[in-house]
């Protein structure tokens, strides 16, 4: 009499002994989730070995020598244009918020711009890591001195404007001073590391 369930299977006989029927998953070719590989985006995982394929981290690619020289060339052109703009045409006088005290900081600004032009020109010719770090140290130090001088003189007058320009400018100058100090320390560290690598090392870091 059948009750709707699976038919009963009598035990098999092997060499005169009763052999129990195979259990689910013992048959050859059956699915066993413990042994099947699990596909992931980063690799393949198997439950037996518990090995997880980790994605290989991407290294940040350094700029090529051509790109670095292009950046130096742009720095030279921009510095020369700023020198022309400030001193020749149209001149710093066209900015209405600058006062007559600007002449007290103008030599400092010219020195900063000229230093940037010279450093970028040297870096355009010579691609050396220690030279790049030394140039960053020089330009950042000069920029820090100029920013402190501008803070002292403060050649700005925004008239009766309701916007708090004085607070904004003072805040920006303070951030520039702090950022320059941090940049000087970073340039010193980069210079020492470049000397450890060797004086002939380029600005491209060694591949690990």
Automatic annotation (TrEMBL):
Any transmembrane segments, and where?
66-85, 105-126, 133-152, 172-196
Q: What is this protein called?
A: Uncharacterized protein
User: Positions of the region Disordered?
Assistant: 1-64
- Keywords carried by this UniProt record: Membrane, Transmembrane, Transmembrane helix
Biased segments, Basic and acidic residues type? 33-42
């Amino acid at each position: 009499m059948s009750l709707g369930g699976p038919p009963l299977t009598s035990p098999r006989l092997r060499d005169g002994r009763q052999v129990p029927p195979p259990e689910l998953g013992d048959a050859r070719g059956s699915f066993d989730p413990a042994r099947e590989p699990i596909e992931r985006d980063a690799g393949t995982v198997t439950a037996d070995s518990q090995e997880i394929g980790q994605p290989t981290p991407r290294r940040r690619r350094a700029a090529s020598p051509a790109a670095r020289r292009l950046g130096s060339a742009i720095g030279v052109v921009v510095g020369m244009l700023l020198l022309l703009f400030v001193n020749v045409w149209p001149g710093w006088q066209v900015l209405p918020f600058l006062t007559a005290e600007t002449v007290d900081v103008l030599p400092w600004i010219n020195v900063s711009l000229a230093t940037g032009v010279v450093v970028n020109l040297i870096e355009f010719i010579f691609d050396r890591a220690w030279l790049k770090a030394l140039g960053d140290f020089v330009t950042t130090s000069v920029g820090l001195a100029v920013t402190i001088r501008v803070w002292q003189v403060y050649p700005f007058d925004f008239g009766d404007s309701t916007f708090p320009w004085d607070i904004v400018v003072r805040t920006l100058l303070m951030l520039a001073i702090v950022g320059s100090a941090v940049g000087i320390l970073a340039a010193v560290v980069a210079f020492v590391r470049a000397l450890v690598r060797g004086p002939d090392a380029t600005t491209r870091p060694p591949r690990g």
